[in-house]
Structures are given as structure tokens and as C-alpha cells.
Amino acid sequence: MIHVGVNGYGTIGKRVADAVRAQPDMEVVGVAKTRPNFEASTAVEKGFDLYAAVAERKPRFAEAGIDLAGDVEELVAESDVVVDACPSGIGAENAAMYREHDTPALLQGGEDATAVDASFNARANYDSVADADLVRVVSCNTTGLSRLIAPLREAYGIEKVRTTLVRRGGDPAQAGRGPINDILPDPVTLPSHHGPDVNTIFPDLAIDTLGLKVPATLMHVHSVNVTLEDPPADADDVRSLLEGERRMFVMPEWLGLDGTGAIKELAQDSGRPRADVWENCVWGESITLEGDDLYLFQAIHQESDVVPENVDAIRALTGAADRKESMAKTDEAMGLVEPLSPSR
Length: 344
Ligand code: NAD
What we know:
Layout: E1 2-7, H1 11-21, E2 26-33, H2 38-45, E3 50-52, H3 58-63, E4 70-71, H4 72-78, E5 81-84, H5 90-100, E6 105-107, E7 118-120, H6 122-125, E8 134-137, H7 140-156, E9 158-168, E10 184-185, H8 194-198, E11 207-214, E12 220-228, H9 235-243, E13 248-251, H10 260-269, E14 280-283, E15 288-290, E16 293-300, H11 307-318, H12 323-334
Helix pairs in contact: 1-11, 11-12
């Protein structure tokens, strides 16, 4: 059993805790929270041991009637691996604590790549983090792009990737980011940070990215153009290639999924926890070849696509399984084996 602690129990942390708990070879030691709120209450209801992230705030938990199992330092000491899902920047600050306890840790995509030993995406570079102390599971957008780029690169070679990322303004619960009614080039200068971030996974890949922010909360949408070195005869070959990939949902036309709202509705209808969409959602009819140039649209659920990647990263850095075995195990345990549409 791999004993896993989760430090930071918010959007990503609570999902990772559930996904880790579902694995046959992992156990959640507990989760650390800074304050007693609805997520602390959820953790208690789910039976996770709760640890105080900030010692001085322990009395607030007592006032709310929430029992604590200890301090975050104890959680770190008792864990074989810690998943740090604290807000951007805090993970890097916590790194000293993980090193002090000699506990390997996963940081998230909001951290700078320079804060860690290696950046991780299961499909693209699983083997590169073995025995690392600090690993960064790359952001939702970089995860989505890496899953797409890896198979295309292996099958056809890539001359250049150009992607425009239409990004949600905030997560559904991030009331502080709104209300808004605008379309922002973000950043207005090129490239956006996403291209360099993809280069932490594929160092020699030529990639340009542009970012926009829109007043939406459900998902991101990527408009992708990849110039292939050795393109196939037609777009159907690309479609078959992507259909054969894990965590890739090539959405058939007949489902009528015309936007991210419909995809999220399908996730709810399918009984997915929190209506999560762990896969890249590629619009099948958008897959187009014009000479050497491949075009497609994909939607990325920012709150959940990195969750199976965190589970795989735990096995990758502890050497518990190889890539294929880990990805299969993760998907099986999370219920990611079937595509969102049961009758596809
Ligand atoms: P969040 O704000 O939803 O959750 C963070 C949690 O950590 C909150 O519960 C907060 O109270 C808690 N926290 C704050 N300071 C802490 C501390 N010192 N110790 C322990 N807990 C502390 O944030 P999130 O969206 O889950 O993001 C976490 C990380 O994941 C960031 O690096 C982010 O960039 C990355 N990420 C977020 C998304 C997304 O869309 N939400 C997607 C991919 C990656």
C-alpha cells in the first residue's frame, strides 16, 4: 500500500483524495485544511482524517465541532507521498517541509517549473520522474495538450503546434473572479505561458500558443493546428488514432454535443462524480487535414483532467508500476474505462 497525504483540500485536492482512495494499491492517510469550511465538512463526512495546515487556527476547528487528527507536519511524516494541492505559490513554499521529512511530493500546475525536479504527464513522460523528490503535475491545459501531442508525434512527427486557448474565467465556485462580461486576450502578448509550459514535457517541440479568457466557468476550449511531418492519407486515420488513446473522448457527431454545456450535462447524466470530465473531449467532425496541417477543437475540464495524472504520478515516482499498468489501474478504479457515452 502507498500511503498518500493530501495537503490542500480544494478543487483539485478533494478530487485527488477520492481518486487515490479508489485505487487498490493506495490509501489516504488524511487531508490538511487551513480552516473549517464546507470542504472540511465534506472531508469529515467522507471519513478522511483531517489535519490542521496552520497550527494557530486549530481552535477554529474545535469551535466548528470538527475533530483534528494532528498537524500537517504529522501528515507529511506519516505519508509515503504527499499531493500538494494548495493555491499557486504555496506548494513551492511547502517544498522545504517535504524535503525536511524526506517525503516525496507532487505539486500542481500553478507552481513554477523551476520549483520542482521534473514536470509530469502520464502519457508523455511517465518514466522521467522515477525517484524524483518533487514533481509537478502540469496544469489542466498543458495536460490536455500533452495528451494530444504525444500520440500525434509518435505516429506522424510534428513540425509545429499552434494553439489558441479559450479559457474559462474562473471555476464555478470562484465567485471572486466575477461577475464579468468581457473577452480578454490573456496575456495580450505572445506567446501565452502555455507553450513554454508544454515545453517542460516536450523540450524540443516547436509550439506557439495564444490565450483568451471568456466569462465561462465550465471548461476550456482549444483550437489546435498541428503541422505534421509525415501526415496520414486522410483525417479518419487521425480520428482512429485518437479514439484508441486513453483519456481521449472523440465525440461522435450524433451525440449532438455542441458545446461545453452539453458535455457537462452528459457527464451529469452519466453519473460522473461532481460531473467531472477526466478525458480530453475532441469534436470528431472538427478533425480536418489540409495538406500537412491538422486542425481540431478540444474541450478540457479544468477541475478534473489532472486528477488521474496525479494518481499515475504517485506510482511513477515510487516505481510502483509502469506506465501502461498504472494508467489502466487508475482508469479502472476511477471508472474512466468507459467513454462518457455508454452506447458509443
Ligand atoms: P483551490 O483554491 O480550489 O484549493 C486550494 C485549497 O488549499 C483551499 O481549500 C485552500 O483553503 C487550501 N490552502 C490554502 N493555503 C493552504 C496551506 N498553506 N496549506 C494547506 N492548504 C491550504 O485551488 P485549486 O483550484 O484546487 O488549485 C490548486 C492547485 O492546482 C494550483 O496550483 C492550481 O494552479 C492547480 N490547478 C488548478 C486547476 C483548476 O482549474 N482549479 C486545474 C489544474 C491545476
